[in-house]
Write a structure and sequence with these properties.
The chain is α+β, with helices and mostly antiparallel strands. The chain has one domain. It is 34% helix and 21% strand. It has a 3-stranded antiparallel sheet. A hairpin with a 6-residue loop joins strand 2 and strand 3. The radius of gyration is 13 Å and the shape is globular. The chain starts with 10 loop residues before the first strand and ends in a 5-residue tail after the last helix.
Length: 86
């Protein structure tokens, strides 16, 4: 399910909207905070291990889903894997 072994675990904070949470961490490449806001229910559904991340977060970009799944910001991903291939 969720494996943060390489990039470290992002933090989860409450949002001003009680239906939402913010998942965030500081990028090891840029030093900037990177965050994604999602519905609490969708995150709980994903963490249950019974659903694919694409099912829980269909409106997120692949990079945002990788951040939730791996704790990897887009700049960290590019540093490890190289630039995206078009």
């Amino acid at each position: 399910m969720i494996n943060y072994s390489i990039f470290g675990s992002p933090s989860i904070a409450d949002h001003f909207d009680p239906r939402l949470v913010q998942i965030y961490k500081y990028c090891s490449v840029t030093g900037d905070e990177y965050s994604v806001t999602v519905e609490k229910y969708a995150l709980q559904k994903y963490k249950s291990g019974n659903y694919l991340i694409q099912e829980c977060f269909p409106d997120l970009t692949p990079q945002e889903r990788d951040f939730i799944k791996l704790g990897c910001t887009p700049p960290e991903w590019e540093k490890v894997m190289g630039p995206p291939i078009d």
